[in-house]
């Protein structure tokens, strides 16, 4: 068969399968992310239906997915919100960072994977999935709840931490010597701060450059700018994802809303491809041996997120039931954790890291929203009784 | 009644307040223009028990239903009051004997039958101040009464 024909057949089969899985997830009321990961495992090497020809094509699609994911994430925030929630919640944010990065880092060190894998695993257990959590909040009607601003500002804090963490991670993963590594981290951090300052001070100029009443022109300008900055960031070892995130932050207001609406379908397509690609790279045979460990790690980090949420909500003067809800809302892990694991696997941090992260995210992406749904009636009855 | 405003990063704004009967209600304004009318649980005051999702048009209709009759009522009240009434703004001068003293000490209503309805201090309005509201030199006092009684109030504020 013609090469292009096989490519289309395979890619079409993947995307169609994702559509069917998405419909299934919708019916059951869970996040589709775990199903996409499973699909990737099934299509990859050692899976039920290995596909080989479209690997490169899917790989590029996955990279695009990460860039679009972070671009739209950045579009959700404006620079003012980032600064306010940074100054208002720094204490809860640090508790979040320490409590939730620790399980991953400690786990990697105990396994003897070395400090580089420990830094990567810290990121895998730290970041809550803002995508899944936002969906949980809106599905369960928790957006108006009084603990929700606390949850949202923790998410913003995490995203900002990511903007600093990802460049550090990519530099460490590049395996430079200590001295040149330190220089590279310095360059990376300088770049991030420079872009943040530009976004804060001169966001309006970028907006007036990008802005257009025509949807097509707006879409092309936003995607073009994001890819350009992503490429530049990658060249400077800052990671493409962070570059795109910063472009998203620089744009705000109506322009950001329009761009978000235009990008949503593109992002959904390529983000799904990204999850599949991560699954493709992971050998399903490796998952079983680490499944128990992943479950243990998931339980530990569920507890640490609960503690984080309860602590932050209590500081905001929220009652017991609201504290519990804040903790539960923070449990889901998803896109970011896979992005981090993807970077680590790509750089060859440790052969088992991908499988462990995949199993871990599978558990928490599926269980987080379910926990929120199942636990809410329990909380309500307890709150009503006391 | 105090309306609390809270930013919801990535979503929009929330305004909420407690009614006199203890029911907490609020409005979540999404950036997309969607408005949620939220009613809080009496047993768990942090949790929303009812959400009414409204689009632009529905939110406008609700606002009109709640707000329009109230505006008409206020206009009617104004009409009744307008004849023979004046509202005058006057400063509390630097040497005023009442600067730094509670408003009750001046006994404005008893002495002149005019009413102090508001005090403006550096751009902030204190509506219907009580007798223990303390004047400061430079305050602007809004007085409602007849031509004569409001002039008497100006005299009291200046000379005691």
Q: Biggest β-sheet of chain B, characterized?
A: 5 strands, antiparallel
What is the overall pLDDT average of chain B? 84
- Count helical runs of chain A: 16
Helix/strand-derived class of chain A? mainly alpha
Helix proportion range of chain A: over 70%
Terminal Cα span of chain B: 34 Å
Low-confidence stretches of chain A: none
What is the H/E order of chain B? EEEEEHEHEEEH
The major beta sheet of chain A can be summarized as: none
Specify the overall morphology of chain A: globular
- In whole angstroms, the N-to-C terminal distance of chain A is 70 Å
Element order of chain A: H for helix, E for strand: HHHHHHHHHHHHHHHH
Main β-sheet, spatial strand arrangement of chain B: 1-2-3-4-5
Q: How much β-strand is present in the residues of chain B?
A: 25-35%
Using a beta-carbon cutoff below 8 angstroms, give the protein chain pair with the largest interface and the number of residues from each chain: A-B, 30 and 23 residues
Total E-strand runs of chain B = 9
What is the overall silhouette of chain B? elongated
List the helices and strands and how they pair.
The complex is a heterodimer of chains A (386) and B (160).
Chain A (H helix, E strand, L loop, with lengths): L2 H26 L4 H11 L11 H22 L2 H10 L1 H21 L4 H12 L3 H10 L8 H26 L4 H33 L4 H21 L4 H11 L2 H29 L2 H32 L4 H10 L5 H12 L6 H33 L1
Chain B lengths: L3 E5 L3 E7 L5 E7 L4 E6 L7 E7 L1 H27 L3 E6 L16 H5 L2 E7 L2 E4 L12 E6 L1 H13 L1
Antiparallel strand pairs in B: 1-2, 2-3, 3-4, 4-5, 6-9, 7-8, 7-9
Defining traits:
heterodimer, A: 386 residues, mainly alpha, B: 160 residues, alpha+beta, 5-stranded antiparallel β-sheet, 4-stranded antiparallel β-sheet, 9 strands, 28% helix, elongated, transmembrane helix (chain A)
Tell me what the structure shows.
Chain A: Pfam families: Na_H_Exchanger (PF00999). The complex is a heterodimer of chains A (386) and B (160). Chain A is mostly helical. Chain A is globular. Chain B is an alpha+beta fold. Chain B is 28% helix and 34% strand. The chains are: A mainly alpha (386), B alpha+beta (160). The interface between A and B is medium-sized, with 30 and 23 residues.
């Amino acid at each position: 068969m013609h090469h292009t024909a096989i490519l289309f057949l395979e890619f079409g089969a993947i995307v169609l399968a994702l559509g069917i899985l998405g419909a299934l997830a919708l019916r059951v009321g869970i996040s589709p992310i775990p199903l996409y990961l499973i699909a990737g495992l099934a299509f990859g090497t050692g899976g039920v239906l290995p596909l080989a020809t479209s690997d490169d094509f899917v790989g590029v699609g996955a990279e695009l997915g990460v860039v679009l994911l972070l671009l739209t994430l950045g579009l959700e925030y404006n620079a003012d919100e980032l600064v306010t929630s940074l100054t208002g919640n720094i204490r809860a944010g640090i508790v979040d960072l320490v409590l939730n990065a620790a399980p991953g880092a400690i786990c990697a060190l105990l396994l003897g994977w070395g400090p580089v894998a420990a830094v990567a695993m810290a990121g895998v257990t730290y970041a809550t999935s803002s995508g899944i959590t936002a969906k949980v909040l809106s599905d369960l009607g928790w957006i108006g709840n009084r603990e929700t601003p606390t949850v949202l500002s923790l998410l913003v804090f995490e995203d900002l931490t990511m903007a600093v963490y990802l460049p550090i991670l990519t530099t460490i993963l590049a395996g430079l010597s200590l001295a040149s590594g330190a220089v590279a981290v310095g360059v990376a951090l300088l770049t991030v701060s420079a872009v943040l300052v530009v976004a804060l001070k001169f966001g309006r100029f970028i907006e007036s450059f990008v802005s257009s009443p025509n949807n097509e022109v707006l879409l092309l300008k936003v995607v073009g700018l994001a890819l350009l900055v992503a490429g530049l960031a990658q060249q400077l070892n800052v990671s493409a994802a962070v570059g795109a995130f910063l472009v998203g932050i620089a744009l705000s207001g109506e322009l950001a809303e329009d761009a978000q609406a235009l990008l949503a379908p593109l992002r959904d397509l390529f983000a799904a491809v990204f999850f599949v690609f991560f699954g493709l790279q992971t050998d399903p045979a490796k998952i079983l041996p680490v499944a128990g460990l992943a479950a243990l790690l998931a339980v530990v980090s569920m507890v640490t997120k609960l503690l984080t949420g309860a602590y932050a909500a209590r500081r905001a003067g929220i009652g017991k039931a609201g504290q519990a809800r804040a903790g539960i809302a923070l449990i889901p892990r998803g896109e970011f954790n896979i992005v981090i694991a993807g970077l680590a696997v790509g750089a060859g941090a440790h052969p088992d890291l991908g499988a462990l992260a995949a199993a871990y995210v599978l558990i928490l992406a599926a269980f987080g929203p379910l926990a929120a749904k199942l636990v809410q009636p329990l909380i309500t009855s307890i709150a009503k009784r006391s | 009644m105090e309306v609390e405003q809270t930013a919801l990063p990535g979503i929009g704004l929330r305004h909420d307040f407690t009614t006199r009967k203890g029911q907490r209600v609020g409005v979540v304004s999404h950036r997309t223009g969607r408005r949620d009318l939220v009613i809080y649980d009496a047993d768990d005051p942090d949790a929303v028990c009812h959400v009414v999702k409204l689009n632009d048009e529905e939110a406008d209709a609700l606002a009109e239903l709640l707000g329009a009759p109230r505006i008409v009522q206020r206009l009617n009240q104004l009409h009744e009051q307008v004849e023979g009434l004046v509202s005058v703004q006057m400063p509390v001068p630097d040497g005023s004997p009442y600067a730094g003293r509670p408003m009750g000490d001046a006994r404005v209503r008893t002495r002149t039958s005019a009413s102090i309805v508001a005090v403006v201090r550096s751009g902030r309005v204190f509506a219907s101040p009580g007798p223990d509201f303390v004047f400061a030199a430079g305050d602007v006092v809004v007085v409602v009464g007849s031509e004569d009684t409001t002039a008497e109030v100006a005299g009291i504020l200046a000379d005691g």
